[in-house]
Amino acid sequence: MAVAAAAETSEASTAGLALAEANINWERLDKTRFHVIGAVLFTAQQGALHPTAVVKTRMQVAEGGFSHMSGFAVFRRILRSDGIPGIFRGFGTTAVGALPGRVLALTSLEVSKEMAFKYSEHLDMSEASRIAVANGIAGLVSSIFSSSYFVPLDVICQRLMVQGLPGMATYRGPFDVINKVVRTEGLRGLYRGFGVTMLTQSPATALWWSAYGGAQHAIWRCGSFVQYFLSI
């Protein structure tokens, strides 16, 4: 009887421990390190993947003459004609321009998650469901805020990636892209594809963060229970 009561007490304490440790309070977070480390990691990831983005964008432009070629053939053609700078065209704008967007995305994610936890305290939900819902809401809010920034940035970077191809305009830099797009297409030109991005990316982001939060909580619980039984 005493063992059963101890087990129940331990289960409650480990559940609370899992929630406390798996979800870092925004107010206690070292925001400088959080944003700096996040920016460095995201920039490194962008640098590794940017050549594939250039190849894909070139292939999607019919006037460029690359649409019938394979990805490797396009990659070799760009290297032959433009060298290494060719496969990293637009990377400077992407890397520097994405930094404020990453801060916006991470901040909105953590703040909205904290708020969702706060307002769901008195709801009749299990701890696992509460964590999954809070993370899902945070992912959705973060996607909405970040898309409002990243969609125009993507439009600018894509214009820089394809400049110089037949029928494509040339630009002196990202600000020249903004000036010409707004002058010829209006502000809507910078938000081309925004609706499709919201319909596809926002639900996917919410689902991803919800699954992440649930899995993280389950792992913490399992680890706490294993630690308890090993200590008996």
UniProtKB/TrEMBL annotation:
<feature type="repeat" description="Solcar">
    <location>
        <begin position="130"/>
        <end position="218"/>
    </location>
</feature>
<dbReference type="InterPro" id="IPR018108">
    <property type="entry name" value="MCP_transmembrane"/>
</dbReference>
<protein>
    <recommendedName>
        <fullName>Mitochondrial carrier protein</fullName>
    </recommendedName>
</protein>
<keyword id="KW-0813">Transport</keyword>
<keyword id="KW-0472">Membrane</keyword>
<dbReference type="GO" id="GO:0016020">
    <property type="term" value="C:membrane"/>
</dbReference>
<comment type="similarity">
    <text>Belongs to the mitochondrial carrier (TC 2.A.29) family.</text>
</comment>
<dbReference type="Pfam" id="PF00153">
    <property type="entry name" value="Mito_carr"/>
</dbReference>
<keyword id="KW-0812">Transmembrane</keyword>
<feature type="repeat" description="Solcar">
    <location>
        <begin position="34"/>
        <end position="115"/>
    </location>
</feature>
